[in-house]
Design goal:
This protein is an alpha/beta fold and 349 residues long. It has 2 domains: 49 residues; 294 residues, Divalent-metal-dependent TIM barrel enzymes (TIM Barrel). It has 13 helices and 9 strands. It has a 7-stranded parallel sheet with strand order 2-1-9-6-5-4-3. Helix 1 crosses helix 2, helix 2 crosses helix 3 and helix 7 packs parallel to helix 8. The longest helix is centred in the middle third of the chain and has 21 residues. The radius of gyration is 21 Å and the shape is globular. The structure holds zinc ion (2 copies). The site of one zinc ion has 3 residues, from loops.
C-alpha cells in the first residue's frame, strides 16, 4: 500500500506540475490512492478551486459584448490546467499547445483526463464551442518539400486534430508552412490543401484554422490571396477557417493601426477570402515596423500598431463570437490580466 501511495503521489505530481498544486496533491493522495481514481480525482480537486465572482462577471460581460478575449495560457501538467490558468486571468476564451513544442512525439491523451477537461470547461462556461483555440506545433510544415518532414508533419497534425476531438475542442489554429524555396508556390499551396483534405478525412468535425503570416519569401499565407487559394482547394469548406494575427498583418504590410485602415483591410479580406471564414483573431502589438516582413509580438499599446487597432476590434461586430487571443510577450499573469481588462474597457457602452 505504501509503495502504491508513493506511486500515486508521483503520478499526480506529474499531472499537477506546479508547486502550488503539489501541496493540494499531497494532501489528497492517500484518499485518492484508496479509491484508485488517481489523476481524474486530483485534477478535479485542483481545478474546481476558485470559480469566483469576478470570473462570472467576466463571462457575463463576454456574452453581452459578444467579445471573447483570452490569452494563450500554459498547459503544463495537462490540457485541463489551461482552463484553470485562463479563468484566473479573467479570460473569456483561451489558447493552448496540445503538446510540447520541441518534440515530435507526445504521450497519448488519457481518456479520463479528456473527460475532466470537457467537464471543467463546461462548468467554467467555456462550453461554447468557439472559445478554445489550440495552437499547432511550430515543427509542423504541411508545405514542406521534404517527404520525410512532410510525413512527420502529417502524422503530428492528424494526431493533434484527434486530440481536439477527444477534448471536445472544435477549432485548431496552425501555421501554413513554407516551401523553403525548393518548390513552386502553387505546388506548396496545393500540397497544403491536400494535407488538410487528408486530415479532414481522418477526423470528424474539428475546423482547421489557418493563421496569416508576417513574411518570408517562401512562407505561405502572408497574403489574403494565398489563404483564398488554399480554401478553394479544400473539399469540406465547413472545416476550414482563418485566424488573423494583427502583428502578422502589420508585419507583412497590412496597416491595421487605425480604425479606417483596419476597416479597409477587413473589406479586402472579405472580398478575397470571405468574412465567413474568419474564425479567430490573435491580438498582438508589433515591435517590427509596417511591411518589415518580421514577426515580433509586443504588448498592447507598446508597439508600432498602437491601441486604436484594438479599440476598433472591441467595437466592431465582425469580431463577435470568435476567440480573440492575446499572444503578447509573457510578463506574468498580472500583465495579461490587465491587458484583458483594458480590452473590455474599450467597449463603448
Ligand atoms: Zn501562430
Ligand atoms: Zn499568432
Amino acid at each position: 500500500m505504501r509503495r502504491k501511495r508513493q506511486k500515486v503521489v508521483e503520478e499526480i505530481e506529474e499531472v499537477a506540475g506546479g508547486v502550488e498544486e503539489k501541496i493540494a496533491v499531497e494532501s489528497i493522495a492517500e484518499e485518492v490512492a484508496e479509491k484508485m481514481e488517481m489523476k481524474v480525482r486530483s485534477a478535479k480537486v485542483v481545478i474546481n478551486k476558485g470559480l469566483d465572482a469576478s470570473f462570472i462577471n467576466r463571462m457575463q460581460e463576454a456574452r453581452q459584448t459578444r467579445k471573447y478575449v483570452g490569452v494563450h495560457v500554459s498547459a503544463a501538467g495537462g490540457a485541463h490546467f489551461a482552463v484553470k490558468n485562463a479563468r484566473e486571468m479573467g479570460c473569456a476564451s483561451f489558447a493552448l499547445f496540445l503538446r510540447s513544442q520541441r518534440q515530435w512525439n507526445a504521450k497519448p491523451l488519457e481518456p479520463e483526463l479528456a473527460k475532466v477537461f470537457a467537464a471543467d470547461r463546461s462548468a467554467s462556461d467555456y462550453g461554447m464551442p468557439l472559445q478554445v483555440l489550440p495552437h499547432g506545433s511550430y515543427l509542423v510544415n504541411l508545405a514542406s518539400p521534404d517527404p520525410v518532414m512532410l510525413a512527420k508533419s502529417r502524422a503530428n497534425f492528424v494526431e493533434d486534430l484527434q486530440r481536439c476531438e477527444q477534448l471536445g475542442i472544435t477549432l485548431y489554429n496552425f501555421h501554413p508552412g513554407s516551401t523553403k524555396g525548393e518548390m513552386l508556390r502553387e505546388k506548396g499551396i496545393a500540397q497544403m490543401a491536400e494535407e488538410l483534405n487528408h486530415a479532414h478525412r481522418q477526423t470528424k468535425s474539428v475546423v482547421t484554422v489557418i493563421e496569416n503570416m508576417a513574411g518570408g519569401a517562401n512562407q505561405i499565407g502572408c497574403e489574403f490571396e494565398d489563404l483564398a487559394r488554399v480554401i478553394a482547394l479544400v473539399h469540406d469548406k465547413n472545416r476550414v477557417g482563418v485566424c488573423l494575427d494583427t502583428a502578422h498583418l502589420f508585419g507583412y504590410g497590412y496597416d491595421v493601426s487605425s480604425a479606417d485602415k483596419f476597416d479597409a483591410v477587413l473589406k479586402d479580406f472579405d472580398a478575397r477570402v470571405g468574412l465567413k471564414y474568419l474564425r479567430a483573431m490573435h491580438l498582438n502589438d508589433s515591435k517590427a515596423p509596417l511591411g518589415s516582413k518580421k514577426d515580433r509580438h509586443e504588448n498592447l499599446g507598446k508597439g508600432e500598431i498602437g491601441l486604436e487597432c484594438f479599440r476598433f476590434v472591441m467595437n466592431d461586430d465582425r469580431f463577435n463570437d470568435i476567440p480573440l487571443i492575446l499572444e503578447t510577450p509573457e510578463r506574468g499573469p498580472d500583465l495579461y490580466m490587465s491587458e484583458v481588462n483594458m480590452l473590455y474597457s474599450f467597449v463603448k457602452k
